[in-house]
Amino acid sequence: MQLIATGCSSFVPPIEGLNETGYLTNIEALSLAQQPASLVILGGGALGLEFAQIFSRMGTKVTIVKHGERILTRQEPEISAYLKKYLEDEGINIITDARVSEVKKSGNDKEVVFEKDGKSEKIAAGEILLATGVSANLEGLGLEKVGIKTEGGHHIIVDDFLRTNIANIYAAGDCVFHMCLETVAAKEGKIAVENAFLDAGKKVDFSSVPYAVFTDPEVAGVGLTEAEYLEKYHTCTCRTVYMDRIPKALAANDTRGLVKMVAHHQNDKIMGVHILSPVASEMIQEAALAVKFGLTVDDIIDTIHVFPTYSEAIKIAAQAFRRDISTMSCCVE
């Protein structure tokens, strides 16, 4: 038996002049000998936003150039919009709907040329950071020699049991591209080994995998978004609670963010929870358990929560399916 677990590396887009001009990945960005005065980040996903805030708070002038309409494209639109505002309030320049066409040197700086609203624009900075996604580390493995199938050479194709099309070869982690998270890679590696040697027949439940974006405030989510639920069921039962309704957030004088909960339109099972909050990564685990074990909004309401805590927002989001939370006093059941 063999297990392929070669991980992934930063994807380098085919932008004219990028290789000649030079760029940073997250690896080089963490080992710079000198802080750049200015930085252009290509990409508005988790990595790009986290590094944007790190460098901005150290005094670097940061500009994010994003191809799509909004940052965190796969997250709830409300979360993307509010986080964008918070980052811009800190002085981070965010340019969306921009297609980068060229990168070139401009004196001591590096210049990024992009198209926006039908016009060519440019911005110069001391460094360019790539945050344009990842690509599986497959080069030099000789997969084609043994006939292992890949998706266009970008990642290895496996079945639900993490087995490739070659019976005795399994693959796990970022090289199969399910969800590029360390936690998922670890779970897949364990399951692949058990399936290979113990014939365990195990699968990964991707529907209940929580994730977080470590900006300030943080973003975290699990399960279906409203758009994903609508696509699947053509209807949606959702509730959004803003953090200014949460006693702990008021007490801490930090009411940034929200909690959005998606429930099944027939049985009220919790299908997804998405959070923007200073401690979203700490709050999401309760939601992950709810999604994994099919808990309903009433199960959450019936569970006594500690007061005052940020996690109480999960319960209040559930209560919003049953009552007008704007008229509630604290700790109301």
Short description:
The protein has 333 residues and is of the alpha/beta class. It has 11 helices and 16 strands.
Describe it.
The chain has 333 residues and is α/β, with parallel strands linked by helices. The chain has 3 domains: 10-134, FAD/NAD(P)-binding domain, CATH 3.50.50.60; 138-204, FAD/NAD(P)-binding domain (3-Layer(bba) Sandwich); 210-327, FAD/NAD-linked reductase, C-terminal dimerisation domain (Enolase-like, domain 1, 2-Layer Sandwich). Helix content is 28%, strand content 24%. The protein contains 11 helices and 16 strands. The protein has helices spanning 18-21, 26-29, 46-57, 77-89, 143-146, 182-198, 226-233, 247-251, 280-292, 297-301, 312-319, and strands spanning 2-4, 8-10, 38-42, 61-65, 93-95, 99-106, 109-116, 119-125, 127-130, 134-136, 169-171, 211-213, 218-223, 237-242, 258-263, 270-277. Strands 12-13-16-15-14 form a 5-stranded antiparallel sheet, sandwiched between helices. Strands 5-4-3-9 form a 4-stranded parallel sheet. A 3-stranded antiparallel sheet has the order 6-7-8. Strand 15 (258-263) and strand 16 form a beta hairpin. The longest helix has 17 residues, at 182-198. The model has no long low-confidence stretch (mean pLDDT 96).
Task: Explain the layout of strands and helices.
Elements lengths: L1 E3 L3 E3 L7 H4 L4 H4 L8 E5 L3 H12 L3 E5 L11 H13 L3 E3 L3 E8 L2 E8 L2 E7 L1 E4 L3 E3 L6 H4 L22 E3 L10 H17 L12 E3 L4 E6 L2 H8 L3 E6 L4 H5 L6 E6 L6 E8 L2 H13 L4 H5 L10 H8 L14
Parallel strand pairs: 1-11, 3-4, 3-9, 4-5
Antiparallel strand pairs: 2-10, 6-7, 7-8, 12-13, 13-16, 14-15, 15-16
